[in-house]
Specification:
Number of domains: 3
Number of helices: 22
CATH topology of the largest domain: Aconitase, domain 3
CATH class of the largest domain: Alpha Beta
Radius of gyration: 23 Å
Strand content: 15-25%
Distance between the termini: 35 Å
Helix content: 25-40%
Shape: globular
Length: about 600
């Protein structure tokens, strides 16, 4: 078996597994963050469920570690109360990013399994462990049972050949990979990275690359730990670690070569992490702000790189530089090494450890027309504010903050550019019963939205994440999707959405599914779905179906046509043209959850 198959098999009742198998997997560490935690608790209480093993269950408050938003503060306090009553460990607002803490504290070890309401839980691939981001219902179910169902993914092996150029960072490596594979070429796959250039990567560099697996559309990017990585983890955690690796004769869906010597310094252009260009194409682009941090580049090695560039220099007039270490331990290391003094002397804002900008709950947000250069993993429209966000390495961000425009450390000006910026209450279990034979066939007006990679911020923006009432969610559907901001005014109950590849890319937020239920949209049909989105929809009993390329043309489906689709058989018909075809019907697991009215319904 390959690496992910060995990890999942060891945590299931199966000796061997293969792609496509649906198995129950025991989970070693189960985490809820501050923005999803309140909904997890609410789901447990309302369904009369208790925590399976408090010692394996954790809260991490990393999205808004200052509690600066009243709703976040209320959710955090609500979770703290529940934690006290149930003996659950809270890594509170002074701790840092939950996924990084899990590695630092040894909550997860190589070969282990980890889930969180963080869509970047697959960072665990950096240490050769399985991590998965999940929605609120999923996490509640894991907290109650200690396990979760998974569909074993196909695996792809990337063999890195030749030598990495000295000036190419781990962030540049993953941006080069995004440039090659985009957001859906490896959609739903587990990716193993091998080769001499991979073996040379440090733990911090592996974390940087694994943290952007979500942006590539993969389930996880996995590294087999080297002896040096094992020794570092044993020193950090005080635990003995047994190596787990793929079998020599392991099978893969694909084995591809990657010539790392051809990698360049890259920048992701605003809007999509996979819209990457050689940095030379965007050099001299003026910036208003710069950000160093996030789960991708908030490690101590990243801060050291930035400090080397910033030492003795100051941030350009009109530019704001914000720096956020990933964890409190890293913050203290930076303090002991004098890095914090360098940052402050350079004119940077240094925040307490946490997620920062991309979570909309700390420093890092930008305003309308503001241009930001960031080390984050996402730059979706509206994700980090109302401005535009470029993505780059810590070295490039630090050099650009000093220059006042995008540049490289070896091409910083003697004088910086100066310019004007462009302009809760604990509830009770509710009585629930299975719905009476829910319908398996629907007829409705088609919304043909032929756009790939519609992410969850376009579907349901992160500024509404604190909403927990399904009745309130519908009004915000697609209000960040260009061309469909009036969708709510025009949509009618019973309408059917038919869209393209990778629908629901990005965050683990459940609201991006529930908003359609709120509007009475009964079915979403797509060529493919983001991995977490697909789980959330299935578990919420929201019918989603997958079609093969060409079915829209085959049935001559046009926007506004009336179509009929059957969940059991996959039969689909265009009533206007009279043409019929097939989409993929429900799996047995999907149908069972649908008939129960949702994962948490008994």
């Amino acid at each position: 078996m390959n690496l992910i198959e060995k990890i999942l098999a060891r945590h299931s009742s199966q000796e061997t597994i293969k792609p496509g198998d649906i198995i129950d997997v025991s989970i070693d560490a189960r985490v809820a963050r501050d923005f999803g935690g309140a909904n997890v608790v609410k789901n447990l209480i309302e369904n009369g469920l208790e925590v399976d093993d408090p010692a394996k269950t954790f809260f991490t408050f990393d999205c808004n570690p200052g509690g600066s938003d009243q709703k976040y503060a209320a959710n955090q306090h609500f979770c703290r109360q529940y934690a006290r009553e149930n003996g659950i460990k809270v890594y509170d607002v002074n701790s840092g990013i939950g996924t990084h803490l899990a590695i630092e504290k040894g909550l997860i070890l190589p070969g282990g399994t980890f889930v969180s309401t963080d869509s970047h839980a697959n960072i665990m691939g950096a240490i050769g462990a399985f991590g998965q981001g999940m929605g609120d219902q999923d996490i509640a179910a894991v907290w109650a049972s200690g396990k979760s169902w998974f569909k074993v993914p196909k695996s792809v092996k990337l063999n890195f050949t030749r030598k990495r150029p000295e000036h190419v960072s781990a962030k540049d490596m993953v941006l080069n990979l995004l440039d090659r594979f985009g957001a859906n070429a490896l959609l739903g796959c587990a990716v193993e990275m091998v080769g001499d250039a991979v073996d040379a990567l440090t733990l911090d560099e592996r974390i940087t690359i694994s943290s952007m697996g979500t942006e590539m559309g993969v389930i996880i990017i996995l590294f087999t730990p080297t002896t040096a990585i094992i020794e570092e983890l044993e020193t950090r955690t005080g635990k003995t670690i047994n190596l787990i690796a793929a079998d020599p004769d392991a099978e893969y869906e694909q084995e591809l070569e990657v010539n790392v010597s051809a990698f360049k310094l890259m920048v992701a252009q605003p809007g999509h992490p996979h819209d990457d260009v050689d940095i030379r194409e965007v050099k001299r682009t003026k910036i208003d702000s710069a950000f160093i941090g996030s789960c991708t580049n908030g490690r101590i090695s990243d801060l050291r790189i930035a400090a080397d560039i910033l030492k003795g220099k100051t941030v350009a007039p009109g530019v704001v530089l914000k720096i956020v270490p990933a964890t409190d331990e890293i913050w203290k290391e930076a303090l002991d090494e004098g890095l914090i003094r360098i940052f402050k002397d350079a004119g940077a804002l240094v925040s307490n450890a946490g997620c920062a900008g991309c979570a909309a709950g700390q420093v890092g947000q930008n305003g309308p027309n503001e241009i930001t250069l960031s080390t984050g993993n996402r730059n979706f429209s509206g994700k980090q504010g109302k401005g535009s966000v470029y993505l780059a390495s810590p070295a490039v961000v630090a050099a650009s903050a000093v220059a006042g425009y995008i540049t490289t450390p070896d091409d910083m000006p003697a004088k910086a550019a100066e310019f004007m910026a462009q302009g809760i209450k604990l509830g009770e279990a509710k009585e629930k019963s299975r719905p009476d034979a829910p319908p398996v066939e629907f007829t409705g007006r088609a919304w043909l939205i032929q756009k790939d990679d519609i992410d969850t911020d376009m579907i349901f923006h992160n500024r509404y994440l604190t909403i927990t009432d399904l009745k309130e969610m519908g009004q915000y559907t697609f209000d960040n999707l260009e061309g469909y901001k009036d969708f709510v005014k025009k949509a009618q109950p019973g309408d059917i959405i038919m869209t393209s590849k990778n629908f629901g890319a990005g965050s683990s937020r459940q609201q991006a599914v529930d908003c359609f239920k709120s509007l009475g949209i009964p079915v979403i049909i797509a060529e493919s779905f983001g991995a977490i989105y697909e789980r959330n929809a299935i578990n919420a009993a929201m019918p989603i179906l997958i079609y093969d390329e060409g079915i829209i043309e085959e049935l001559d489906i046009q926007d506004g046509d009336t179509i009929t689709v059957n969940l059991e058989t996959g039969a689909i018909q265009n009533r206007r043209s009279g043409k019929s075809g097939k989409v993929h019907p429900f799996s047995q697991v999907q149908m069972d959850i649908y008939k129960r009215g949702g994962l948490l319904n008994k």
